[in-house]
Design goal:
It contains 14 helices and no strands. With 283 residues, it is mainly α. The chain has one domain. The chain starts with a helix and ends in a 10-residue tail after the last helix.
Length: 283
Amino acid sequence: MRLLTRVPPEGLFFVSGISMYAGASVAVVTFEYLAPAGVAWWRVLGAGVFLVLVRRAWRREWTWRSFGLAALFGTALAAMNLSFYLAIDELPLGNAVAIEFLGPTTVAAIGSRTGRAWTALAFAVAGVLVLAGVEGGGTPTGFFFALLAGALWAAYIVLGERVATSGSAVDGLGVGMVVGAIAISPFGASPAIEALVTPWVVALALAAALLSNVIPYALDQHIFTRVSRARFALLNAMLPATAALVGVIALRQVPELTDLLGIGLVVAGIALGVDRDPDAVSA
């Protein structure tokens, strides 16, 4: 944990983003053998059980308030994962990430208090709008689920900050994901359980859980204790660029010029606004 405190939040976010979208790439491959809802269920359940066992979360003295907060957080997270997978089953990964990103930019706008921050957000929103200019495959259903994932991402930021600062942190994350897996069971449990006859498919889904949930969300819980909600939302502006990088390497999705323009605007927003945050919480 001391090592993490020596790494700037931006550096932790870069590692988190690489891991998250590497996991998304694994999930896209897995969709050929298991429905997206089934992959999402294994992702959330596998990550939750792993964290609960490693952390021995049952030893914590839980109150109804702390457990309820963790449950709400985990349900929002699980629903976000499910919505995102349903979106990338219908849309290219980069487009889905761009549309989903409207959620955290809204949180940043609500939490910002300075003209500089609002200007930075204007750059970020402009970049998202450029990236959301879809040129190619996609369906209205995919857009709906991407927008829903963005709204749930906003809820994840708000609830995640409360879980982190309440003291339950990673324990709350693990318990919350187990509850979240139960919440999305009506959508994903049946195909997920049927996949048990092909263990290697389950292994792929669990790999997505490790890369997309355990590593990035555990890092998020650490970052939440070091920065304000507004700054955390601004840091999320790094994710479209990270997704594009992973897309090039893992999925051979080479960005168009318009994609690069949108990513550049988002990065400009980060450079303009994220370095000065009077609300940041010290480590």
